[in-house]
Amino acid sequence: DDGDVAVLQRYRAAQESVLNSLREGNAPTSQQYLTRDIDMYRLSDADLRAEYEEFQRQYLADDTEDRVRGMVEMALITIGEIMDKPQHTRAKMLQRAAEEQRASTEARKREQEQGQKAQRERTRQTAMSEAAHAKWAPVWRHVYSLSTEQVMSDEVRSLRKRLHTRAELQLVVLAPDEVKRWPPGKFQAMGTNGLGAIEARAALHALQLANPTGSAAMRFTELLRAKVNALPDFIDSPLIIDLPPLAAEEHIAEPLAQARQQQNEQHAQSEPDLAMQASANAVG
Predict the structure, then answer these.
(1) What does pLDDT average to over the chain?
(2) Which is the most buried residue in 37, 97, 134, 147, by most CB within 10 A?
(3) Burial class, 80, CB count within 10 angstroms (exposed 0-12 / middle 13-18 / buried 19+)
(4) Is-contact 141 164, C-beta < 8 A?
């Protein structure tokens, strides 16, 4: 442990630093006060009492500046609270306070790290939901707009019926302004049961675009977010449904063209394998 003389020297140097700031018209920093107070707690019983008497003298002196007098008053209060405690007790108090401060600092650091991690995950989930919406919303809107006469396949017919009957998917196919005007009861009736992974992600992004108000909409948003957060990561995949062409639906031309190109490439890659298999069978 430091000797009493060394502690007193450090304390006086720290106190002089505080006084110099005040004399220059500046407020001492919290670190300056902390450095002084740590050694204040470590002072010997005699040195602490001497400091208390010196602060009393400065407080009562007519020539003490107001800004210094305020500091002196706070120092008197601090010393008054610990002066009746022996030096070893004050040292334990200081150690306990340091441990509490360290624990508090570590807790704040953990909270900050957890907050940053949660923010990164929210950003990642938002990007995946946006990607799902960007890929499938144009297709669903196309199917939603088809008349029954235009639907040729059972797959498209089933999808069209689902889009017209599930309000959760109408979040995706209708304009955000229209969704925003929905009554609270419509959101109250919504749920996440039966929604596929892509449907949940696209619906969540559409709901965030519409940004409806009210507790019912907020409740469903949180339900969707909880479901999405528990899903596997979104992986882009080719469009596999065969849609009837609509010249007016230019906004889905590109994704449909990409899907057909991917299907053609997959078919082309499979043809050599089939030819080799047929040749092998002939040789056999």
Answers:
(1) 85
(2) 37
(3) exposed
(4) no
Q: Write the pLDDT tens digit of every residue in 217-255.
A: 999 999 999 999 999 998 876 655 555 554 334 444 454
CB 84 within 8 Å of CB 38: no
Q: Please tell me whether the overall predicted TM-score, pTM, comes out greater than 0.85 for this model.
A: no
Residue length, the chain?
284
* Total Cβ atoms within 10 A of residue 157: 14
Q: How far apart are CA 37 and CA 31, in angstroms?
A: 10
Tokens for 103?
Answer: 């624990």
User: What's the token pair of residue 53?
Assistant: 């008497």
Dihedral of the CA atoms 59, 65, 66, 72 (nearest 10)? Answer: -40
| 136 vs 203: CA distance, rounded Å | 11
Q: Which residues contact 141 (CB under 8 A, 6 or more apart)?
A: 172, 173, 249, 251, 252
Dist. CA 175–CA 163, nearest whole Å:
14
Half-sphere exposure of 9 (CA within 13 A, CB side): 5
Tell me how far CA of residue 84 lies from CA of 56, 75, 81, 92, 126, in angstroms.
17, 15, 7, 14, 60
pLDDT digits (tens, 9 = 90+) for 27-57: 999 999 989 999 999 999 999 999 999 999 9
**DSSP labels for 75-107?**
HHHHHHHHTTS-HHHHHHHHHHHHHHHHHHHHH
